């Protein structure tokens, strides 16, 4: 790793000559149509973004969430100092800092328009806020939750979205109106995700050890499937069945459902019947972050994710970046070891894969861009 160059974002980076461009993003010798499988083992930490506005002994804030816009041009973080940071992926620079001091911020998500976002409040109330980033003005408040929001998931084809809250509801919203369009009264819903078609959504209930799947067109009816995590536990620790769930995500090919855990592995479930396809073992254990809805340490919006091809799962750890190949053959008790360990000394507590380019973002207290090494 010592031979891998890493750019450091300087205090004057917003006006400096860009040090990272789209050619470099894809690798100088890697075509824009490169398959993930051709480059996944070659990712290297390439650009580090320390917060240059942290001065006078103030501690570096924690990154709570990472998201990319649909074109893959922008990366956004929400942070524990109640700011939203926006970065240019093509040029490898910090572009904008937005303040949300009055309401706090977490779970920031781009809508399908890159100039607007939604995010959950952390103080004052439990409203979800819809913000125009070009002038930092609120477009709308989505009010109704009476407990902290723990998850936001945007519909893949429209600006409808689902929220989960500690008020024992999951709510469905249309971004064009402040009133929710549907409510599910559930036992501590914590995480939610859409399947790639947008016809099905899942809600995770760690208190009952289950994941519920609903037909979006008939969600008022009973769930179409109930996945029993206890039954699909495999070799996981008993406490991982009912606590510590960090992320819920469908693969883009619709075959798998990833249930992240802050314990020693993640659950890779069959998206059709909920059976355990593999227990993704983390050799060094998990990160120091709390799971969604837990108190104590700083929360993370997700320490694992799928690559866009649906084949690979990536996860942070207390050091290094772990990559599993879902086409690999699990060993005893369906344990699947990482196919690759991408070395990095920093904890990767939050992770996201750019939807358009072979580019990964990880963070704990500093954002880090990973790119394929064309010489690997």
TrEMBL record:
One of its GO terms (biological process) is RNA metabolic process. It comes from the Eukaryota. InterPro entries: Swd2/WDR82, WD40/YVTN_repeat-like_dom_sf, WD40_repeat_dom_sf, WD40_rpt. GO terms for molecular function: chromatin binding. One of its GO terms (cellular component) is Set1C/COMPASS complex. Keywords: Nucleus, Repeat, WD repeat. WD repeats lie at residues 142-183. It is found in: Nucleus. Pfam families: WD40. The keyword Nucleus applies. PANTHER family: WD REPEAT-CONTAINING PROTEIN 82, WD40 REPEAT PROTEIN SWD2. Belongs to the WD repeat SWD2 family. This is WD40-repeat-containing domain protein. It comes from Diplogelasinospora grovesii. The lineage of its organism: Eukaryota, Fungi, Dikarya, Ascomycota, Pezizomycotina.
């Amino acid at each position: 790793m010592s031979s891998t160059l890493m750019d450091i974002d300087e205090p004057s980076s917003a006006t400096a000559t860009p040090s990272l461009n789209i050619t470099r993003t894809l690798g100088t010798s890697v075509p824009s149509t490169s398959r993930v499988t051709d480059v996944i083992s070659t990712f290297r930490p390439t650009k580090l973004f320390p917060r240059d506005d942290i001065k006078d002994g103030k501690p570096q804030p924690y990154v709570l969430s990472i998201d990319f816009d649909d074109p893959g041009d922008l990366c956004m973080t929400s942070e524990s100092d109640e700011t939203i940071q926006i970065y240019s992926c093509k040029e490898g620079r910090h572009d904008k800092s937005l303040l949300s001091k009055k309401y706090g911020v977490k779970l920031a998500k781009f809508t399908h328009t890159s100039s607007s976002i939604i995010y959950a409040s952390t103080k004052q109330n439990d409203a979800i806020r819809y913000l125009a980033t070009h002038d930092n003005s609120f477009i709308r408040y989505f009010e109704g939750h009476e407990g902290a929001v723990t998850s936001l998931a945007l519909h893949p084809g429209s600006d409808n979205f689902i929220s989960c809250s500690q008020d024992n509801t999951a709510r469905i919203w249309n971004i064009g109106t402040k009133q929710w369009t549907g409510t599910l009264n559930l036992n501590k819903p914590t995480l939610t995700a859409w399947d790639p078609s947008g016809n099905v959504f899942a809600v995770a209930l760690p208190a009952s050890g289950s994941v519920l799947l609903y037909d979006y067109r008939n969600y008022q009816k009973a769930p179409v499937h109930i996945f029993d995590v206890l039954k699909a536990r495999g070799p996981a620790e008993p406490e991982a069945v009912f606590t510590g769930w960090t992320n819920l995500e469908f693969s883009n090919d619709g075959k798998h459902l990833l249930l992240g855990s802050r314990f020693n592995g993640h659950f890779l479930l069959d998206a059709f019947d909920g059976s355990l396809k593999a227990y993704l073992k983390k050799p060094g254990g998990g990160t120091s972050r709390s799971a969604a809805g837990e108190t104590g340490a700083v929360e993370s919006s997700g320490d694992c994710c799928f690559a866009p091809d649906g084949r690979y799962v990536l996860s942070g750890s207390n050091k290094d970046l772990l990559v599993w190949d879902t086409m690999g053959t699990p060993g005893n008790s369906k344990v699947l070891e990482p196919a690759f360990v991408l070395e990095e000394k920093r904890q990767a507590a939050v992770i996201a894969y750019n939807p358009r380019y072979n580019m990964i973002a990880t963070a704990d207290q500093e954002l880090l861009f990973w790119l394929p090494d064309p010489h690997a």
